[in-house]
Amino acid sequence: MPDNSLLLYLLTGVFAGIASGLLGVGGGLIIVPVLYFVFAAQGLPTESLMHLALATSLATIIITSISSTRAHHQRQAVLWPVVLRFAPGILLGAWLGGVLAARISSETLKPVFGVFELLVALYMFSQYKPVQHDTRISTARSTGGGLIIGAVSALVGIGGGSLSVPFLLWHGIAMRRAVATSAAVGLPIAVAGTAAYIYSGWQQTFLAQGRIEPTLGYVHLTAFVSIIATSFIFAPLGAKLAHSLPETTLKRVFALFLSAIAFKLMLS
């Protein structure tokens, strides 16, 4: 492992935790590209770089979402009935998305993630707000929406906030409650998606510079532990900032950051 890998893992956790609590978009948008480049520098197999990055990202989001959700719950901002209605579709969709991603080549997954990240950046930069469509989130709609959100999220290694927040806004839920509820929705996405990547990579062994890397399926354990060590601490800070800082400025700065790393990932 390069000497600075551990430091990069820890710093990634800091930014991922803040992003999760602040914007409800989950840390995967940061974690996946950073891990891709760090794993590549370590000499891990090229054909597995994206799978390892996606799986490890989802595993860390399990911890980050718990911390972020707890902070939002203390402010009574999480709509738990909505979370429960989402859960069945989310769990099934995330499992299917993870299994599908494990069967797609790393070189195909890389531009898929890059394009998705650019779309998220454009959405955040534009400050587009979905027009309220219907304040009722029926069982059928929440199940169908959850299935799509879960599948796409697991496919690109995120907590689903970039999809679930607009969905909740579309149904007339206020921004801060949408962010808080999205953080809670990220937990079943991360759990089911991680389980799918562990299952799909269970018999895989990964070598870096002649050494066997510590992995559980496609989850890189060193990266996982390092990232959660800081993301768990900093997610509440993000949640606190979400209730105090100008939303527009923060979103545009984050959108520019996402655009930069998306282009770097696709052009690498």
Provide structural commentary.
The chain has 268 residues and is an all-alpha fold. The protein has one domain (5-267). The protein contains ten helices and four strands. The longest helix is centred in the N-terminal third of the chain and has 26 residues, at 49-74. The chain is globular and about 55 Å long.
The helix-and-strand class reads mainly alpha
Distance between the termini: 20 Å
The 3D shape can be described as globular
Largest sheet: 2 strands, antiparallel
Write a compact overview of the structure shown.
The protein has ten helices and four strands; from the N terminus they run H-H-H-H-H-H-H-H-E-E-E-E-H-H. With 268 residues, it is mostly helical.
Question: Topology of this protein?
Answer:
Blueprint: H1 5-23, H2 28-42, H3 49-74, H4 80-102, H5 106-126, H6 139-156, H7 161-170, H8 175-200, E1 207-208, E2 211-212, E3 215-216, E4 219-220, H9 221-242, H10 247-267
Antiparallel strand pairs: 1-2, 3-4
Descriptive keywords:
mainly alpha, 10 helices, 268 residues
